[in-house]
Amino acid sequence: MAGIMIYSDKDELSFELLSGAKLISGHTGLPINAVCINNSEQAQGLAARGAETYLINNEAINLADSQGMASALESAAIQLDANIILLSSNRRGKELSGRLAEKLAAGCLTDVGSIKVNLDKIECMRNSLGGAVLAAQMITSDYKIIAVEPRVFEEMAVGKEGPINNLKIEAQAAELEVLEQRAKVGDTANIESANILVAVGQGLKSENDMLIIKELAEALGAEIACSKPVATDKKWLPEERIIGLSGKKCKPDLAVILGISGQVQFTVGIRDARTIVAVNTDENALIMQMADYIMVADLHDLVPEMTRALLVKKRLNGVRL
Amino acid sequence: MNIVVAMKQIPDLQQVRIRNRQPVLDGVPMTFGSIDKNALETALQLKEAVGGNVIVISAGTEELEDTVKEALAAGADEAYLVLDDELEHIESSVSAHLLAELIKQIENIGIILFGEGSGDNYSGQVGPRIAEILGLPEVGYVCDIELEDSRVKVTRSLEDCEEVVRVSLPAVLTVMADINEPRIPSVTQILKAGKKPQQILEVEDIGFDLKGDKKIVTLSSLAPENKRKQITVKNGEELVDALLTEGVIRR
Ligand SMILES: Cc1cc2nc3c(=O)[nH]c(=O)nc-3n(C[C@H](O)[C@H](O)[C@H](O)COP(=O)(O)OP(=O)(O)OC[C@H]3O[C@@H](n4cnc5c(N)ncnc54)[C@H](O)[C@@H]3O)c2cc1C
Question: pTM for this one?
Answer without folding.
Answer: 0.89
